[in-house]
Every structure is written in structure tokens, then in C-alpha cells.
Amino acid sequence: MKIELLHFDGCPSWEKTQANIRAVLAERGLSDEIELVNVQSNEAAQALRFVGSPSVRIDGRDIDPETPDSGFNLECRIYWVNGRAVGVPPVELIERAVDAARA
Length: 103
Fold this sequence. Notes:
Blueprint: E1 3-7, H1 14-27, E2 34-38, H2 42-48, E3 55-58, E4 61-62, E5 79-81, E6 84-86, H3 91-102
Parallel strand pairs: 1-2
Antiparallel strand pairs: 1-3, 3-4, 5-6
Helix pairs in contact: 1-3
């Protein structure tokens, strides 16, 4: 399973996201590596189809099924949880994506 954590320097949420990914993997007895992808420019964001930091992709697919198909920029990403905007993807999204990749 290929796990990518896309982020940019200065993002306040990517390290918590990395910790959450590691926790989900540990709960499942997995030791897959997390590839950190540091997006450094809007041009790189366009090339990588980066919708904001932090973004998590497993086997090339974003963990959020609601991921927009445009607006690729070097900016913070917002996830919606129970009508609230948060900067870290919900653990449930990570769990579902990991489980789907393993199925």
C-alpha cells in the first residue's frame, strides 16, 4: 500500500495527520511507510493536483471522497466534520481508506 502525505512547510496540521495515520496503521498491525511529499510552489500544487495541506492519498486516491477536482493551490485544506471546519482529516476517513486499500 502506498501512503502519501502531501503538505507544505508551515502547515500546522500535517504532523497531527501523520500521527493519526501511524495510529491507524498500528491498530491494524501494519508497518507501511508514509511518504512525505513537500509541495513547495503553486506550480507543484497544479502538477500534483494538490487541494491543500494536509492531503492524504492511499494508492493514488485521496482519502476524502468529496475531494474537489479543481482549485489546486499551495494553501491549507479544510475538512468538514459534523458541520465544522477542521484542519486535520478525520481518523474515520483514514481508517476507511486503509481498509479499502487492504480489501
